[in-house]
Amino acid sequence: xxxxxxxxxxxxxxxxxxxxxxxxxxxxxxxxxxxxxxxxxxxxxxxxxxxxxxxxxxxxxxxxxxxxxxxxxxxxxxxxxxxxxxxxxxxxxxxxxxxxxxxxxxxxxxxxxxxxxx
Length: 118
Hints:
By secondary structure, the protein is mainly alpha-helical. The protein has eight helices and no strands.
């Protein structure tokens, strides 16, 4: 995204990419019983997605509008496929909900320090 913005273009795909990766993290926490501090970093495909867009723009010389529009459509479809069986995902974890609302939770709320102090 930074590469696209630096060359004075626009990145259309970032919203659906964030939505898709958030849905993957939520599914990992609810369906796979993954803890919050493992679910968030595990959705590291955002690096690959950014590299793909950067490759299309920088090496293949595809205009950023077209490359990110393709990403937008792809991530939108991936988000729909990921949530087709679950629909709305209710997340019972307070730390994940706090991050989603723009707050950084305390580490004891996440359970990190509790596991190592006992």
